[in-house]
Amino acid sequence: MKLVISIAGDSLQSPFDARFGRAAAFCLVDSDTGSWTAHANPALEAAGGAGVQAAQCVAGLGAQAVVSGAYGPKAYASLSAAGIAMHLAPGNAPRTGADVLAQFKAGELSQAQAATQDGRH
Amino acid sequence: MRIVVASGKGGTGKTTVATSLALVGGESVRCLDCDVEAPNAALFLHPVLDRRQEVGIPLPRVDTARCTHCGKCAEVCQYHAIAVLGQTTLVFPELCHGCGSCTRLCPEGAISEHLHVTGVLEGGLTADGLEFARGLLQVGEPMAVPIIRELKRWPPRRRPAIEIWDAPPGASCPVVETLRGADFALLVTEPTPFGLHDLKQVVGIARELKIPAGVVVNRDGIGDQAVDAYCADQGLPILLRIPMERRIAEGLARGRSLLETAPDYRPAFQDLLAAIQDRVNAEYAR
């Protein structure tokens, strides 16, 4: 399946970015073949509505699921409408996108059932 | 003639100056409190507020039967307030600026607008017969600009010769919206590094909007000489100095205008109003 992981860099080996709307970039990974591409987050410097813009970007990439550290109310509403499953990689431990992909494949990540933080405009 | 009283830094005496200027103008004045997040001019003018109107922004409403999820609305929205995801078109009211782009550009005519009330306008006359109005943004609403825009558009009872608009503090969108269309920017500052820092920002806005400006130095005698040096360097006239006086602060704390507490200032404010009128007339004559 096509999975998006929020990253702070430009490759699957870049550090995982626990923020969704304000992540530096998104790594689109095919979890079956392991092939990946990196895409800059257009919402990085948005004045407001970053979650909405980031969600539209992720939907445009054709992802079926996303892994990040937190989802605000507008990101949650937008990703839900697009039918994209939101997975949570909790904690602040330093890790790479590849580490998070391994956790996802091992079934260690739970899904967000609601927005996990308040909106920040 | 439209005079905006602004400052940058909060608490320098914008409202003290605006209300006293309005009081010397009397019946020829309409005074608008444009600090819609915390309007306080009424505390000193004591108007009887007998007019009231709800205002807000036009929010898009999507007719799901006609929407084809083409995404044009989301593409044109600068604020990401409308998004098309799969077979759903979502509206985020708190992000919408009410610009109307999505409604006008929807190829299916599937979007209509309805008023989302975010505040009220209130108006009335003071005992001196001057017209007063203010905007009041609802608690929890993020956008002051639409309320200020509607306040400035609110029809006066009679056409005033002089408009005095008391601006919000700061140097962001609400201050720009208040200054738009003004003939003169009266900038109230205090002679401190903080006062000067923010004065420079508001001077920058007035210049960008091509509005002539003059300065009032309030609490004169405290701080340093840097505001004087800056004004001299920039060719900004200092039109009035109000010394640091305990009796003025005590009067304000009791809800009395500066002129009520210190009637000896009346000639100075009459001169200030005349000086602004002269400068505006000279500007138009050029």
The CATH homologous superfamily of chain A is named Dinitrogenase iron-molybdenum cofactor biosynthesis domain
Beta strands of chain A, count: 6
pLDDT averaged residue by residue of chain B: 96
Spans of at least 5 consecutive residues with low confidence of chain B: none
CATH topology term of chain A: Nucleotidyltransferase, domain 5
Order of helices and strands of chain B: EHEHEHEEHEEHEHEHEHEHHH
Strand content of chain A: 15-25%
The quaternary structure here is heterodimer
What level of helicity do the residues of chain A show?
A: 10-25%
CATH class of the largest domain in chain B: Alpha Beta
Helix content of chain B: 25-40%
Describe the protein:
The complex is a heterodimer of chains A (121) and B (286). Chain A is of the alpha/beta class and 121 residues long. Chain A has a single domain, classed as Nucleotidyltransferase, domain 5 (2-Layer Sandwich). Chain A is built from 3 helices and 6 strands. Chain A has a 6-stranded mixed sheet, sandwiched between helices. In chain A, helix 2 links the parallel strand 4 (65-68) and strand 5 (85-88). The longest helix of chain A has 11 residues, at 50-60. Chain A is globular and about 35 Å long. The termini of chain A are far apart. Chain B is α/β, with parallel strands linked by helices. Chain B folds into 2 domains: 2-46 and 127-285, 3-Layer(aba) Sandwich (Rossmann fold), CATH 3.40.50.300; 58-117, Alpha-Beta Plaits. Chain B is built from 11 helices and 11 strands. In chain B, strand 6 (111-125) and strand 7 (131-137) form a beta hairpin. Chain B is elongated. The chains are: A alpha/beta (121), B alpha/beta (286).
